[in-house]
Amino acid sequence: MSGLVPQHRQGTAGRLRPNPGTDVPLAHAIGREIIHAGLADHAFIERATSGFEEYRQLVEPWTLSLAEKVTGIPAAAIRGLAHVWTRDEQARLIRLPGDTELDNGTDHLQSLINLSLLTGHTGQQGSGVQRAPFRLVQQAPPVDLTDERYPVRLTTGRRLDSYNSSVQRGDSAAPLRRGECIELSSEDAEHYSVVVGEQVRVSTRRGSLVAPVWVDPALRPGLAFMALRLPADADINQQTVRASCPIAGAAEFTASAIRIEKLPVAAARN
Question: Which of 46, 103, 110, 230 has its CA 20 to 30 A from that of 116?
Fold first, then answer.
C-alpha cells in the first residue's frame, strides 16, 4: 500500500508489499482493526463525517486472518500498521505515480481516505458543517487473472531514474538509467533457468516482447516488474490490460498476467 506511510517509520510499516490488486481489502482490514481496538476518533466521526455505520458493516468481514490470505501480508504486520497509523501524528496519505493506474484506482484511493476519516487524520478538520462521507468501496480482483498459461503477475511502474520529463522525451542521460528489463524474483529466475542479462520472451494475452532478465531478491515468487518506458525500449505499455477506471479514466497498467519463456540460444544471441 504505497499511499499509507507513517513518515518517520518508513523502514517498517512503509515497506509492506501487498499482492497486486489487494489494496482495498488491506485498507478494510486496517479499518476494522482500528475500530475493534477502540482507536477510532469517534468525536471527529460524529462531528465531521457521515456513513460510519455502513462503513463499519462493510469492513467487519475483513479480519486480520482473511486479509493475510488475500493480501499476502502477515496479520501481525497489518495490526501493527493500523496501530502506528492511528497513533502517529505524522502519518500521512501520500499519492505516488501509479497509485491510480488500476481499473479500480479510484476505489483504492477512497479506501485510504476512509482511514483518514476514521482517525481524524485529515489536516484542517474544520467545523464539520459539511460532513465528509465514508465511501463504501468493494474489493474487485484484477481484471487480468493469472492461470496455467499466464502464471506470473506483472506489475509496472517507475524506477528512480524515471522521475523527470527528459525520460518521457527519450533524451535522459541519468547515470542510473539502464535499458528496460523484466525483473524476476530469485526463485522464479531459478525456476525458468535464466540469469541476469539473458533475453526472455514476455507474453501477455495481448502480445509479447523480448527483454533481458534482472533478478531482484526483494520480489516475491510469482511477481515480476517492468517500468513504463518508451517504444525504443521494451514497450510493455502496449501489452498491458485494456481496461480503465470507470470514474477517473486511468488506464490499468499495474496488474497483468504474463508468461516467461526461455529463448533458444541462437534467438537470444540475435
Answer: 103
All 3 cell numbers of residue 191? 525456476
The enclosing H or E element of 54 equals: helix 52-59
pLDDT in tens, 81-137: 999 888 876 666 655 544 444 545 678 888 989 999 999 887 655 445 578 999 999
Report the DSSP beta bridge partners of residue 251. 244
Under 8 Å between Cβ of 185 and 223: yes
- C-alpha span between 38 and 32 (Å, rounded): 10
pTM for this model (two decimals): 0.72
Amino acid at site 192: Y
Grid coordinates representing 87 are 497513533
Residues 6+ apart with CB under 8 A from 104: 21, 24, 137, 140, 245
> CB-hemisphere CA count at 13 Å for 229?
22
Residue 91: name the closest of 103, 100, 102, 83 by CA: 83
Grid coordinates belonging to 253: 497498467
Of the candidates 53, 197, 200, the residue with the CA atom closest to the CA atom of residue 118:
53
Residue 118 near residue 40 (C-beta atoms within 8 A)? yes
Query: What single DSSP character describes residue 85?
Result: H
**Nearest residue to 152 via CA among 8, 40, 255:** 255
Tell me the residue ranges of DSSP E strands in 19-163. 49-50, 91-93, 132-133, 152-157
CA distance 93 to 116: 8
